[in-house]
Amino acid sequence: MHALHTANPPLVHGGIKLSNCLLNASGTIKFANFGLRLIEREVLEATRSVNAEHLPYSYAPEVLRHDLTRLEALSSQSVELFESIPPLTDKADVYSLGVILCELYTMQRPAQLKGITTMGSFVNKVCSSSLSLIPANLPAELHDLVALCLEPKVR
User: Fold this and answer.
1) For residue 74, what pLDDT is reported?
2) Is the CB of residue 54 less than 8 Å from the CB of residue 42?
3) What is the phi/psi pair of residue 41, to 5°?
4) Is 41 left (phi over 0), alpha (psi -120 to 50) or beta?
5) Please, which pLDDT band fits residue 151 given cuts at 50, 70 and 90?
6) Three-point CA angle 67, 120, 14, nearest 5°
7) In this predicted model, which residue has the larger pLDDT, 129 or 123?
8) How far apart are CA 14 and CA 58, in angstroms?
9) pLDDT digit string (tens) for 73-122?
């Protein structure tokens, strides 16, 4: 991830999830699916029923907001709105890393997102500042690292 973020120009994946992390024979992690992150309009419909397996649960809240605004700009054909969208920063990938670390430790997706059946409720819950994706049973060292990854003011 550091290599991506310090490249010239810097690269932000924006869609890192566990299934996009590939491990080679020497133990090096490679990221896949660059540029394929924009969530489809149909999936983002607030009332659309979604399979929990397809929720972009590891995406940072700013990535969800970014994609929603891009889709709104495209559907309204608003050049001004499209040009006003700030670019994603490396902080989005750091957030995803925190979620992935939790998933690797617990071997399951965030429990706080279970039972969500619509994309609208998913986006509202993830973008809520009160949501904590950190499992209570994380070891202290891992808990502190994940907390840094998920905290917008720190990451």
Assistant:
1) 80
2) no
3) -55, -45
4) alpha
5) confident
6) 30
7) 123
8) 10
9) 888 888 898 888 888 899 999 999 999 999 999 988 776 777 777 777 77
H-helix segments, the chain:
2-5, 41-44, 61-76, 79-84, 90-106, 119-126, 140-150
Q: What's at 124, amino acid-wise?
A: N
Query: Tokens representing 98?
Result: 């925190």
Q: Is residue 33 within 8 Å of residue 20, measured between CB atoms?
A: yes
With left for phi above 0 and alpha for psi between -120 and 50, is residue 27 left, alpha or beta? Answer: left
pLDDT per position as a tens digit, 1-31: 898 899 998 888 888 988 889 999 999 999 8
| C-beta atoms surrounding 45 within 10 Å | 14
Task: Spell out the domain ranges in the chain.
Answer: 39-150
